[in-house]
């Protein structure tokens, strides 16, 4: 096991970028808790109102991010991120003063739009600040921030609400974004000289040509294309049952007070998984193998949980929490390798467009999945949806593994793209 996960933090630019991400991620989860509490408890609205909030959070990533990412690639990344954070502070103020759901949704959409611009710029900055041989560690640290804040953010948000009132998390979120700006101000100017791909004109072309260039790169880069398809399908399957998880937990015997243990188990597993992958980076030679392999094991766990919901498999609660931990652990086996493939298989000058297009595909699958899951639950049962999701996850991973084994002698699918690697003299 190689103790080099924190190696990229020795780079001043990445250290500033990572510090900004930690506070940005924390702010996002403080925000998510506060909005749900306001809608459900303060305003007394139903589940459809919560669903509308979640949909509006995701929409900018689908309909705005991919189109605006062309400008992100053309402009300096550091100023973009700082302006985005300033606008997020402004829109958080709008959320604080929102008098009803409709005004709140407007500011949720605006804040999501800015976030859909910030993330491609952040992804591009990682590519520009970290050398290729340290990308696995950098991507792991980034994913570790996301997973850790998923645990800390909701817990901290609940505590802040209890101490200071229902809207107080917005104030702390704005402070977090301001601290993120301070981190970015310490970041040295990025070297944004681009390495052009063969047969690509060096001068900036038309907007539509630049937009389609990013999509074309995904279509022509097999490793990247496979990883995006695999992760998008996995996201669809996860969100198929994610909204039904509370009913699954009830069937397993969890009460309102112990349901949080199940969610915490998933979150803790994802953090531990990220740390392990950060120390052991040999997976970077075969990232798709790891993604598909963990899918098979994840699917088996999901099927077991479905059987438990039906009463066929009866286990103590602590074992179900352990299963949730393993589910989170295996989830990192998909998220971290995907992030590495996205970074290593994309040229620096196209990082914004490619990451935004990939996020658009993933977010679209995440948005439509809950509705499909709810429909299937009505037609069959919640347990049936869970078991079907598990079977689909197993089949997805198995199909990709069989494809890799079939092609292993005739293709180099797991080798990094020549076009992305630096050509050393």
TrEMBL record:
Domain Major facilitator superfamily (MFS) profile: residue ranges: 1-409
Entry GO CC: plasma membrane
MF-aspect GO terms: transmembrane transporter activity
Record membrane topology: Multi-pass membrane protein
Keywords on record: Cell membrane, Membrane, Transmembrane, Transmembrane helix, Transport
Alphabetical list of InterPro entries matching this protein: MFS_dom, MFS_trans_sf, TM_effector
Transmembrane segments: 21-43, 49-72, 79-96, 170-187, 226-249, 261-280, 292-312, 318-342, 354-376, 382-405
Subcellular location field: Cell membrane
Superkingdom per UniProt: Bacteria
Cited PANTHER family: INTEGRAL MEMBRANE EFFLUX PROTEIN-RELATED, MAJOR FACILITATOR SUPERFAMILY ASSOCIATED DOMAIN-CONTAINING PROTEIN
This protein's name: Macrolide transporter
């Amino acid at each position: 096991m190689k103790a080099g996960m924190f190696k990229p933090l020795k780079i001043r630019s990445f250290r500033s970028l990572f510090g900004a991400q930690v506070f940005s991620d924390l702010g996002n989860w403080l925000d998510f808790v506060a909005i749900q509490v306001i809608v459900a408890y303060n305003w007394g609205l139903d589940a459809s109102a919560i669903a509308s909030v979640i949909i509006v959070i995701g929409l900018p990533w689908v309909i705005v991010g991919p189109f605006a990412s062309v400008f992100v690639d053309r402009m300096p990344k550091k100023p973009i991120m700082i302006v985005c954070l300033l606008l997020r502070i402004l829109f958080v103020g709008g959320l604080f003063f929102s008098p009803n759901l409709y005004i709140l949704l407007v500011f949720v959409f605006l804040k999501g739009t800015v976030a859909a611009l910030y993330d491609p710029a952040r992804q591009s900055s990682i590519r520009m600040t970290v050398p290729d041989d340290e990308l696995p560690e950098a991507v792991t640290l980034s994913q570790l921030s996301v997973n850790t804040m998923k645990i800390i953010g909701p817990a901290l948000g609940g505590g802040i609400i209890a101490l200071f009132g229902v809207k107080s998390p917005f104030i702390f979120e704005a402070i977090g974004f301001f601290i993120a700006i301070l981190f970015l101000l310490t970041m040295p100017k990025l070297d944004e000289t681009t390495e052009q791909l063969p047969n690509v004109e060096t001068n900036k072309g038309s907007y539509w040509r630049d937009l389609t260039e990013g999509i074309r790169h995904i279509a022509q880069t097999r490793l990247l294309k496979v990883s995006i398809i695999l992760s998008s399908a996995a996201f669809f399957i996860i969100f198929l049952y994610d909204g039904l998880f509370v009913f699954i937990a009830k069937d397993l015997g969890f009460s309102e007070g112990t349901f949080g243990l199940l969610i915490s188990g998933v979150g803790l597993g994802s953090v531990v998984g990220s740390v392990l992958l950060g120390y052991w980076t040999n997976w970077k030679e075969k990232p798709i193998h790891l993604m598909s392999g963990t899918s098979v094991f994840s699917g088996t766990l999901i099927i077991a949980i479905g059987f438990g919901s039906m009463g066929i498999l009866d286990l103590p609660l602590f074992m179900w929490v352990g299963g949730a931990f393993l589910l989170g652990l295996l989830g990192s086996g998909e998220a971290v390798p995907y992030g590495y493939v996205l970074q290593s298989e994309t040229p620096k000058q196209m990082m914004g467009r490619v990451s935004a297009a990939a996020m658009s595909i993933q977010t679209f699958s995440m948005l439509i999945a809950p509705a499909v899951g709810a429909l299937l639950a009505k037609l069959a049962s919640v347990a049936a949806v869970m078991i079907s999701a598990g079977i689909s996850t197993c089949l997805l991973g198995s199909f990709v593994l069989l494809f890799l084994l079939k092609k292993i002698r005739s293709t180099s699918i797991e080798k990094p793209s020549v076009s992305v690697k630096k050509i050393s003299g």
